[in-house]
Amino acid sequence: MPHYPYKPFIWDKSETLSRDEIRAIQFVRLRETIRRCSAIPFYRKKFDEMELRPESIRSVDDIVKLPLTTKSDLRDNYPLGFLAVPREDVVRYHGSTGTTGKPTIIAYTRSDLELWSNLCARFLVAGGLKSHHTVQVAFGYGLFTGGFGLHYGIERVGAAVVPAAAGNTKRQIMLLKDMQADALVCTPSYALTIAEAIKAENIDPSELSLKLAFLGAEPWTEQMRETLESTIDIKSVNNYGLSEVMGPGVSGECYARSGMHFQEDHFIVECINPHTLQPVPEGQQGELVISSISREAMPMLRYRTRDIAVIYSGRCECGRETLRMGRVIGRSDDMLIIRGVNIFPSQIEEALLSIEGAAPHYQIILERPKTLDEVRVRVELDRNLLSDKMIDMIQLKSRIEEAIHQITGLHLPVELLPPMTLERYEGKAKRVIDNRNIVTNNL
Ligand code: ADP
Ligand code: ZN
Q1: Residues 116, 108: contact at Cβ < 8 Å?
Q2: What does pLDDT average to over the chain?
Q3: pTM for the full model?
Q4: Which of 138, 196, 309, 352 has most Cβ atoms within 10 angstroms of its Cβ?
């Protein structure tokens, strides 16, 4: 285990493997994973039905022969049906945050935790964390993987953690100032809440040492990054993960910030059409499907993340040759189908942020007065955009509606709200309010 980065911005040697070397490692680990999965009744049954044995997999491409795993498979086997080791080997449990329903429980052996810390250390170092830094973690600590995952990753790098946990924005700012943290860890929406509060309190940026923010756990946009970075002078880097395959550490941006590098020696990633389940060509949007090929307690084969993103290959300026993913555009279960058009909340966000002063706080309200869905976008305005002239406000409303139309092709009514009216979030933001009163199978 390295104690110092292998090179600047690279934590360990395996991060710079060539594609051939990555494939070779994936092949060995995939076969081993199939062997371990045979201990899980769900997979054993599937393997028997398909007459599949580890030897049936002759290359990494044969992964498509393996069964897909969904969130409902995990729920059906709640809490520990997917455990592949004796319970006494488990040293930690986590769970998904339940953004979309009941949580799923995830287990880790000691070596799983070891790996997890190391993978978090990798993306932190890639994004610019140094061992002399102090990092404030404003993620929730608990079943949610964000807090503990990043916490141990930061310690692994040798940096110091201030485990502030989520919430109490005033105290966050006090700690940032008093402890002179170099970096902040939280969700992008909470980073923005903190940044706004710093601005509102007229704190001189020189009173803070904040240079970096490692943000993840929810979709955000490039425009949001710009807004955040211009509100407080920091560099923010994106990282992605999900508890079902481990937690944060699945992929992350390097300092070049041109897509999130997958940690491919430990995860095999595919991108599929969520309807046909067939692979989509590189560079096209699809659902990410991820297999964790190094985990002991709960190895996971072809987990359908429901996250929509693009994947692409090519050597990055940082030297890594791993596949990268673009931003998560949304979750397939967040996708709204309005008059036959598929849209994601992030597209509305992109439109709003293209208009100066339309603050990045919004809500999408879904209603079904009769048989058709109706959508309204509530937009909170920046103080500078407020005017007591009716004509200004009408023009602004139509400018916003036009921006939404440009991006989504839909004419959605916009409601303007005064500053600071919409709820702020300490964890994952809730953008869509569904008032339709219909029972859906929200998987
Ligand atoms: P839950 O599914 O209950 O929210 P998790 O806490 O494991 O469970 O969250 C994982 C999910 O969070 C991912 O599937 C993805 O939708 C979202 N997510 C995590 N990181 C990012 C990111 N950087 N960008 C966009 N979405 C993210
Ligand atoms: Zn890179």
Answers
A1: yes
A2: 93
A3: 0.91
A4: 138
